[in-house]
Amino acid sequence: KNQVEQSPQSLIILEGKNCTLQCNYTVSPFNNLRWYKQDTGRGPVSLTIMTFSENTKSNGRYTATLDADTKQSSLHITASQLSDSASYICVVSALCSTGT
Questions:
Q1: Strand locations in the chain, DSSP E?
Q2: How far is CA 30 from CA 59, 76, 94, in A?
Q3: By residue range, what is the domain housing residue 62?
Q4: Cα–Cα distance for residue pair 17/60, rounded to 1 Å
Q5: What's the whole-number average pLDDT of the chain?
Q6: Domain annotation covers residue 1
Q7: 6 burial class (0-12, 13-18, 19+ CB within 10 angstroms)?
Q8: Distances from the Cα of 10 to the Cαs of 21, 26, 62, 89, in angstroms?
Q9: CA 22, 27, 33, 37: dihedral to nearest 10 degrees?
Q10: In a domain, 88, yes or no
């Protein structure tokens, strides 16, 4: 059964501090993992897309890590700002195989 779980469910931190969000998944075969930021009342915005071979990817103050062996990813936010207040979504895509 393919599952994706994020933690913590909610997080309150002081402005200027760092924080880390976790994503664990059981999706197999794995294609890619994406982190999105969704502001209230708006659609999700892609922060990063990671494939099996990528361990770390940065986008400004956001750094995502991926460990495909343990099937977990983290999103690290450096020097948080008020504008970081949002929902963060981890999406894992399965690799679709077609029969020959």
A1: 4-7, 19-25, 30-38, 45-51, 56-59, 62-67, 72-77, 87-94
A2: 22, 22, 5
A3: 16-94
A4: 15
A5: 92
A6: no
A7: middle
A8: 9, 22, 18, 12
A9: -50
A10: yes
In a domain? residue 85: yes
Q: How many domains does the structure of the chain reveal?
A: 1
User: Could you give the CA distance from residue 27 to residue 92 in angstroms, rounded to a whole number?
Assistant: 7
The pLDDT tens digits of the residues spanning 6-63 come to 999 999 999 999 999 999 999 888 899 999 999 999 999 999 999 988 999 999 999 9
| In-domain check, residue 51 | yes
Residue 18 pLDDT:
97
pLDDT at 98: 59
- CATH (domain of 87): 2.60.40.10
User: Are residues 73 and 56 in contact, defined by beta-carbon separation less than 8 angstroms?
Assistant: no
What tokens appear for 83 in the block?
A: 């504008």
